[in-house]
Amino acid sequence: MALVDLDFPEQLERFGVDTALECFNCGTCAAICPLIHEHFPRKIIRYAQLGAKDRILQESDELWRCLHCGLCTYTCPREADPGELILGLRRYVIAKWRGRADV
Ligand code: SF4
Ligand code: SF4
User: pTM for the full model?
Assistant: First the structure.
């Protein structure tokens, strides 16, 4: 498996995510997130931008920590909608688990 796949942000559109490249990695979402857990969700969004799919799959349990409170989306200065990004990444991971994702 390739370590990165720069086409992945575009491929995520089929999972309902079209804002991954809007993120400029500022960390506001990680600072506001009540979970306060290892740069979540900034880090996993960075993985999505780079197409680090192996990391997303290996660390996918982090995606289910999200409470979907919306604070990250509300404060993101780039309107990258990190809350929705997480939901899209969950859809991607589930599709991979079920063998229904060819990306
Ligand atoms: S998703 Fe928004 S708040 Fe989070 S790191 Fe990216 S630009 Fe910053
Ligand atoms: S929606 Fe999820 S990632 Fe965003 S601030 Fe809330 S718990 Fe954290």
Answer: 0.93
Report the atom number in ligand 1 closest to the C-alpha of 82.
1
Can you give the pLDDT at residue 2? 59
State how far the Cα of 20 lies from the Cα of 29, in Å rounded to an integer: 14
Q: Whose CA is nearest to atom 1 of ligand 2?
A: 68
String of DSSP letters for 27-64: -HHHHH-TT--TTTTHHHHHHHHHT-HHHHHHTGGGGG
Best residue among 66, 87, 89 to mutate for probing ligand 2's pocket (most ligand atoms within 8 Å of CB) is 66
Mean pLDDT of the chain: 94
